[in-house]
Design brief:
Number of strands: 14
Order of helices and strands: EHEEEEHHHHHHEEEEEHEEEEHHH
Strand order of the largest sheet: 4-5-10-6-7
Bound molecules: flavin-adenine dinucleotide
Number of domains: 3
Strand content: 15-25%
CATH architecture of the largest domain: 2-Layer Sandwich
Shape: globular
């Protein structure tokens, strides 16, 4: 039973922070409530941010994409401004979070602030170099998402509010592929791999390999990424891609739990990273793609 004494509504980001600090006792922000109702926070009051003007999805003239923290996953999955960004990788991630009723209220901010290692929006946002916008009482700070998570269920926020996330236009043009390995369509990830490759003049200029559910926080496999940078899209060797995937598997720190063993998760990072690199390279690579059934 949730022993909540007060339910507060904020009309702006600044008011939300002020209401959070007003006391008495401790508070927590609430957005869609899909995590909060499953795992109620130990708090005296909650501050509802659904009417704080944080639900916008916008593209700047330069093509940057902004997602308000209180935007629902359903709105992300169906918004035309998101559709052509990063070959639809954001849409795909949002559309595979939970089920339809959950996605109608679950927000992207809640998914990130909950800071579960398996949070499904985290790897895709990491692969696209997301920046977080964070509100304090009378100021706003931005920081790369990669620096936002400090441990399982822990972020840099303390009592501050996540206002939204911005993705650079350049990330929207990357070749992308992702795979959420899960026991059932509505379950959380066993392993989640997102690959985003920025290609210029036939070469991989930027490589991002982001992993979910295989470390205390959603992570980037930076050593594996470095292996790909500078490679020609048409001449990259199968061995180099296999090496990059093996390096990614070495970089992660999976746990054993009731869903899967650490060993299985690590091997799936290797298998899925290799496949997503191949998918992201599309048909410009000379390598034959997996048929889907083989685990190589
Ligand atoms: C049946 C079911 C299936 C699910 N399946 C998945 C799945 O497949 N993949 C997945 O990743 N998740 C899944 N979830 C978990 C959950 O739905 C998502 O993580 C969701 O995005 C959380 O968003 P929310 O708005 O409901 O968060 P809330 O429950 O409102 O909040 C979650 C946490 O974030 C904090 N918070 C929320 N917004 C902010 C903000 N703007 N600033 C600061 N702190 C904030 C809250 O204080 C709380 O601690 C599932 C949940 C259910 C019930």
């Amino acid at each position: 039973m949730w022993e909540l004494k007060e339910y507060r509504f904020a009309a702006s980001a600044q008011e939300a922070v002020a209401l959070m600090r007003q006391g008495p006792g401790t508070g927590a922000y609430i957005a869609g409530g899909t995590d909060m109702f499953l795992h109620p926070a130990e708090c005296d009051f909650v501050v509802d941010i659904n009417h704080a003007g944080l639900s916008d999805i916008a593209r700047t003239p330069a093509g940057d994409l902004f997602l308000g923290a209180a935007t629902t996953l359903h709105n992300i999955a169906t918004n035309p401004l998101v559709a052509d960004f990063a070959e639809g990788m954001l849409i795909e991630a949002a559309a595979h979070c939970g089920n339809r009723p959950v996605r109608s209220t679950a927000t992207i901010g809640g998914n990130i602030c909950n800071a579960l290692p398996s949070a499904d929006m985290a790897p895709v946002l990491l692969a696209l170099d997301a920046t977080c916008y964070i509100a304090d009482a009378d100021s706003q700070e931005s920081l790369p998402l990669v620096d936002f998570f400090v441990g399982p269920r822990a972020t840099v926020l303390e009592d501050r509010l996540l206002v939204g996330l911005a993705l650079p236009a350049e990330a929207g043009t990357r070749r992308c592929a992702s795979y959420k390995l899960t026991r059932s369509a509505e379950d959380i990830s066993l392993v989640h791999v997102c690959v985003a490759l920025g290609i210029e003049d036939g070469k991989i200029e930027t490589a991002r390999i982001a992993l979910g559910a295989v470390a205390p926080v959603p992570m980037r496999a930076v050593l594996a990424e470095a292996q790909l940078v500078g490679q020609s899209v048409t001449e990259i060797s199968p061995d180099l891609i296999a090496d990059a995937a093996a390096i990614a598997a070495g970089e992660c720190e999976p746990l054993d739990d009731h869903r899967a063993s650490a060993e299985y998760r690590r091997d799936m990072v290797r298998v899925l990273t290799r496949r997503q690199i191949l998918r992201a390279l599309h048909d410009e690579t000379t390598i034959t793609k997996d048929s889907g059934g083989t685990v190589a």
